[in-house]
Amino acid sequence: MIRHHTPWLKHCGLLLLVAACAACASNAAVEPRTASVQAPASETQQIPAANIEAVANTLQRYIDEGKLAGATIMAVEQGELRTIDAMGYQDLENEVPMRTDTIFRIHSMTKPIAGAALMTLYDAGKFKLSDPVEMYIPELANLQVAIADGPDGNPQTEPAQHKMTIRELMSHSAGLTYGFFSDSQVDRLYQQAAILDPNSTLKQMVGKLGQLPLWAQPGSAWNYSVAVDVQGYLVEVLSGIPLDEYLQKHIFTPLGMDDTGFYVPENKQFRFTRYYHNDNGQLISAPNADYQTSPVLLSGGGGLVSTAADYMRFAQMMLNGGELDGVRILSAEAVNLMRSRQLPDHIQELGGFVDPGNTFGLDFAVVEDSSKAYGQSTGVYWWWGIGGCWFWIDPVREFVFIGMIQHRDVRQSVGLHRLSKQLIYGAKGADG
User: Fold this and answer.
1) How far is CA 90 from CA 191, 204, 369, in A?
2) pLDDT at 386 over 80
3) CATH number 3.40.710.10 given to 3-20+32-109+241-424
4) Torsion angle, alpha carbons of 413, 419, 420, 423, to 10
5) What is the tens place of the pLDDT at every residue in 13-41?
6) Is pLDDT larger for residue 416 or for residue 432?
7) Cα(140)–Cα(207) distance, rounded to whole angstroms?
8) Where do the structural domains in the chain lie, given as residue ranges?
9) Is residue 158 within 8 Å of 145, Cβ to Cβ?
């Protein structure tokens, strides 16, 4: 059994966090679909230590059984550090132990950060959620929508019934797709166009998107998509600077997220975990040849690396209503919008890898029905990354949990994410 506990020094300021101060000036336009979350209750009984330890023990068992190389977890409740734990190895082949400051590819956990960056521009009055996306990105004007399969791989189409809005873009209901989570002619067109070509710029990406039909009518369905990469380009258009520079200036530097970015500098490579997969029961990885330099495609949908402690800084800012350690990143209104239902009422179930009982806000899934969601508090907001990292923010218990692994088995990663919630909230059937 390999467990590594190291002092948590850099971020000990979390122990002194207090509730967010009054909201800063917000967008002048009144936006619909805000919804208050159940008020935090500091007197709520804490998550039992045994429940948190059960998550660590489960991850350790996966490591001992050869299903994972290593893992890092971190939990903070009501400003108190409950655990930070490193298990196994970040480099199994060379027996390099996992660290509490190991750097992970966080993939789609990039999305809430990119969404927060866009909402700083909402706070600055640069856009309204009801604005058509084409107002700022003309490449996405006059879009057609696929309605049936057509000859030669080209679907039959009809005009969009309305212009996709920024709210729809941020809630994955804009009609876009990803190219690989569903099997449609539109998805295959995304693949042929190499929409997420790492050698393309965000501007080139949206140019290609504008030549392809939408997967569905805007506002008609929830479909996980490249929408947050489009949001990244929207940040560039509205701010006039590249996405990486904007994130550094408005998110990472103010929050002290020193290990978060689009690549791992040479002097930090020794903390960068390998990426594993199972091959006939054996954990296999390749040497870390990725994330060595700043990429061409600054993917707001999945391009960042980070650590558990860095991501905790971001999550605590969100939990505090947009402020951390006296630095305000977002207005309380912007945070409330992000963690509240933003989908039309007719979209009730999201399906796929989104747990039952959840809806979607702005770049966050949001728990609406605790009874269907492992007993989580109503209002918990969360997301995960395809490489195995996951997190959630519980505004009722003032609890944040972050888990980080690096493994290509999506079913295993989703299973661990769900199991950790069952264990934390004591849901029936969570046997660890």
Assistant:
1) 32, 35, 37
2) yes
3) yes
4) -170
5) 443 332 222 233 333 333 444 443 444 44
6) 416
7) 8
8) 3-20+32-109+241-424, 133-239
9) yes
